[in-house]
Design brief:
246 residues; 33% strand; two-stranded antiparallel sheet; Chorismate lyase; 10 strands; 26% helix; 2 domains; disordered N terminus; alpha+beta; Arc Repressor Mutant, subunit A
Length: 246
């Protein structure tokens, strides 16, 4: 951050803490400070703007009350990540849902490989436990903020050669339709909540004790007896509102 000591007008009618609030808000709106970024410490802000700690604390407290900043014990004060909404009745994937809202969606593969289904996955996908499945796990970000870990499983009897078709930003549903002629028509979701693990806190930049949504999802084509995909999506509850419109 550049030197801004002269940007606050000492003799203005507007209080200094309000001027500091405006300066910080402007940096947030212009992405000089992005979602999840740490703001300068109290001593740094005092020096930067030539104001007292009381002024800095008042400005930060007001921005916390407005939901723009959040304090994390022992770590500092951060720009909050705005919540998104996703409809539980929407069959589209993450890219389709949020791309339409002009968020820049990116995906990066965390795990990709073949494995034996076993009893649990065999039951989820309606296949023999000894059958081979493809597992792909990806981290999905929106506007640079990590939002979801998506772990998906596919029967390789149903989708042979799928492993060579999947890359970081591949739209899975588009691929199933264009490559294999399988269009997603129906979905079942089971939602639960739990406390995030330390590893998930690191990936999502969450606070200790934050709650994670676990969304277990099975999708089907025209035939509801043949699952096309089984997946588990993990999303911090602080990042997402799950919406049902009826």
């Amino acid at each position: 951050m550049s030197e801004n000591a002269n940007t606050l007008a000492k003799n203005a009618a507007v209080p200094l803490y309000e001027q500091l609030k405006f300066a910080l808000k402007e940096m947030i709106s212009t992405r000089a400070l992005g979602p999840g970024d740490t703001i300068p410490t109290e001593p740094e802000l005092c020096k930067q703007y030539n104001v007292s700690r009381i002024t800095v604390r008042r400005a930060i407290a007001d921005l916390e009350a407005e939901g723009l900043l959040e304090k994390r014990h022992g770590k500092g004060t951060f720009v909050t990540v705005p919540k998104m909404e996703t409809s539980l009745l929407n069959l589209g994937g993450f890219s389709e849902s949020f791309g339409l809202r002009r968020f820049h969606v990116e995906k990066s593969i965390m795990e990709l490989g073949e494995e034996i289904a076993g009893e649990n996955l065999g039951q989820k996908l309606g296949i023999d436990p000894s059958a081979t499945v493809l597992h792909v796990s990806r981290l999905i970000t929106a506007d640079g903020t990590p939002f979801t870990i998506e772990s998906s499983y596919f029967s390789l009897d149903l989708f042979p050669g799928l492993v060579s078709e999947i890359h970081d930003d591949t739209s899975l549903y588009h691929l199933l339709q264009t490559k294999y002629g399988r269009e997603v028509k129906h979905a079942k979701r089971v939602i639960s909540c739990r406390v995030a693990t330390p590893k998930e806190n690191t990936i999502f930049h969450c606070k200790s004790g934050d709650i994670i949504f676990e969304v277990e999802k099975t999708v089907y084509g025209d035939d509801r007896s043949i699952p096309l995909q089984y997946s588990m999506l993990l999303t911090p509850s602080t990042r997402m509102n799950l919406v049902i419109e009826v």
